[in-house]
Write a structure and sequence with these properties.
Oligomer: homodimer
Largest sheet of chain A: 2 strands, antiparallel
Number of domains of chain A: 1
Strand content of chain A: 5-15%
Largest interface: A-B, 28 and 28 residues
Structural class of chain A: mainly alpha
CATH superfamily of chain A: Winged helix-like DNA-binding domain superfamily/Winged helix DNA-binding domain
Radius of gyration of chain A: 15 Å
CATH class of chain A: Mainly Alpha
CATH architecture of chain A: Orthogonal Bundle
CATH topology of chain A: Arc Repressor Mutant, subunit A
Strand order of the largest sheet of chain A: 1-2
Number of helices of chain A: 5
Chain lengths: ~120, ~120
Amino acid sequence: MAKRFKGDMCCPPGAPAAEVSWQTLEGAEADDELAKLAKAIGHPARVRILRLLSRKEARVCSQIVDELPLAQSTVSEHLRILKEAGLVRCAQDGTRVGYCIDFDGLRRLKALTAII
Amino acid sequence: MAKRFKGDMCCPPGAPAAEVSWQTLEGAEADDELAKLAKAIGHPARVRILRLLSRKEARVCSQIVDELPLAQSTVSEHLRILKEAGLVRCAQDGTRVGYCIDFDGLRRLKALTAII
DNA sequence: CATTCTTATCGTCTTTTGACGATAACACGG
DNA sequence: CCGTGTTATCGTCAAAAGACGATAAGAATG
């Protein structure tokens, strides 16, 4: 039997609705921030990964690799980009790494696009 | 006196809230569509252009050029990318070209990001 | 400890992006 | 018709992105 992913430490169900209002939504800084977030989503594979995580169809890196027609190193790189942009978080579980959506980043993206 | 931009044909104030529900929000096609939209926004200059258009601080290509530290050809290229992605529309007015936000595309973007 | 499984990183290559100047195309004013 | 102002396109170049295989690192398992 395949080992189950232990951790529920990533994306706990009781995650509070984060405050984003303390950060500015305008100005050059906000423009750069939105551009960075959008750029991270600006690739079909990364959108696909976010959807897989969102629907909990995949959680561990190797599962994501199975779902995509890409090499493991490529998927790892996409995950790194998403993580760097603040759109996913990860939690180590022994050898494996569990990924999940970073809803703070996602909210931030929506807030920034909302005022265009 | 500088010639006024004649056209209000672009982005009329009474633009109806468009229907987007007929298009799918899931599947590989939707993923590609979201990636394409996000990629178009994934550059600081293009975010800046969208904001300028949104606040009506600029409307004509030459005005946008004045607002950005970029060459005219570069700005034109950014506008082309935004237009191609369906995020801005343009209307000819004699020699000038008036740009405006394509709210259909923007709604589409928000709808696609909403379900992540 | 050796093996296996899982993930990140590195090196390399090709393709795409971003920027610019030069130039073409076009409408308008004299 | 001639110059002027405005925008799009082209050619070129440097930089970044995207993909892969190989490999390193680390945890679990026997």
